[in-house]
Amino acid sequence: MTSSPISNYAQASKTLRQRDLRQGLYDEGAVLMDGVLVNLHGDRHKARRGLENKVFRRDFFRYYEREIFPQSLQQTIDRFVESSGGDLVEFGFRAMMNLTIDFAGMDRPDNSDEENDTLLRLLRIFALGTTLAHAKDDREKVRQQVRDALAEFDARFLQPSIARRQALIDKFDAGDIDEDALPRDVLTVLLRNEDNIDLPDDELLREMAFFFVAGAQTSIHSLVHVMHEIFDWCCGHPEDAHRIAEDPVLLQRCVHESARLHPSSPVAMRRAECPVTLPNNEQVNKDDLIVIDLMGANRDESVFGADAAQFNPYRKLEGSTAPYGLSFGLGMHACIGRNLAAGVIPHADTKPEDHQFGTITLIAQALLAHGVRPDPLHAPEMDTKTERPNWGLYPVLIGDLAS
User: Fold this and answer.
1) How many other C-beta atoms can be found within 10 angstroms of the C-beta atom of residue 168?
2) What is 26-264+337-370's CATH superfamily?
3) CA–CA separation, 257 vs 262, rounded Å?
4) In this structure, which of 55, 58, 231, 303 has its CB flanked by the most CB atoms within 10 Å?
């Protein structure tokens, strides 16, 4: 049985926190998602998350945001500027791929165009695997594409990356190098496995593929949505164009507001581990599917105001409600990389020089600094391969308006 969709914000929040409900969104995509962190429950989830949290710390996110990502972003945006623009979706894939492949722990020995094109192709296939529940194509065909992509990813990227890291770990264990000489990434943490969790080779492969795609996919679509919202907002509020481009705190608020309106999945799904009474008083049995309407909850007028369905970067909220609503989840399955993507929520006394803005804000800031704008001759198009309301093509121009 499938429950009635829960769209009340308070009820949705409580449902996401219920510990007797396991992840149910990725059942169709088990070919990629079986045994990965987001799909685990109970003790296995707690153990895996505890181990990986050694990477996902705020100081580590700050290190990536300030030391690693700016260099990677500069290379990607320089090419975009040289081409005077192009598809914003394609740009987002390339910008975020460079971050997530390093963060996950995949080496690129050549760092060539061919190597990066291969990774981009694999990333797109893995993305289809994570969203299989919403796929419009033949699902078994997609599953086979994912299997083939996993085998290629394993042979060409994962195994060489494991070999290099394991050699360094062995040197550290022997006292030949200091811990600072070890790579700071997810793969190294999992290989060291200081908590001795059970992690078979096939699960390690899927976990690394998942981190590769999860770190990029959500941020890509969030980036395109927020740029579209900013373009629309500035058409009606031209006085805000320079302010959004020059005020990173306001720009981050734009990112959070857009994320509220456009969660990466319009719904969250959970399966009951036992008979449960939901916060809306509905009774569900073991293995029943519970649907949480994230898009509806994020537009609950009792929480976000009468204009809850509209984009407003100046929105005022009461209490502890996050400006991005439930888009990054709550409870045990809250997004582990939220601060990397969206940064820390700003406050009235936030000092930009000390603040963590998140990678989406940094990319948007770089695009605006280079004069990004919609291409007037080519209209954007929605993605026709999925039921998720994401952009599939978003042509933009970039560079000097007079050029």
Assistant:
1) 16
2) Cytochrome P450 (1.10.630.10)
3) 9
4) 55
Domain boundaries, the chain: 26-264+337-370
pLDDT-derived band at 220, boundaries 50, 70, 90: confident
| Contacts of residue 368, Cβ cutoff 8 Å, sequence gap at least 6 | 230, 244, 245, 251
Tokens of 156: 């060409």
Read off the pTM: 0.91
**What is the spatial distance between Cα 122 and Cα 401, in angstroms, rounded to a whole number?**
35
Max Cα–Cα distance, the chain, nearest Å: 65
Please determine, for residue 403, whether its predicted confidence score (pLDDT) is greater than 50. no
Pull the structure tokens for residue 367. 């695009």
Q: What is the pLDDT of residues 272-284, one digit of tens each?
A: 999 999 999 999 9
Counting every residue written for the chain, the total comes to 403
Q: What is the pLDDT of residues 47-83, one digit of tens each?
A: 898 888 887 776 777 777 888 788 878 888 998 999 9
d(CA 240, CA 323): 20
Give the up-direction half-sphere exposure of residue 93: CA atoms within 13 A in the CB hemisphere: 20
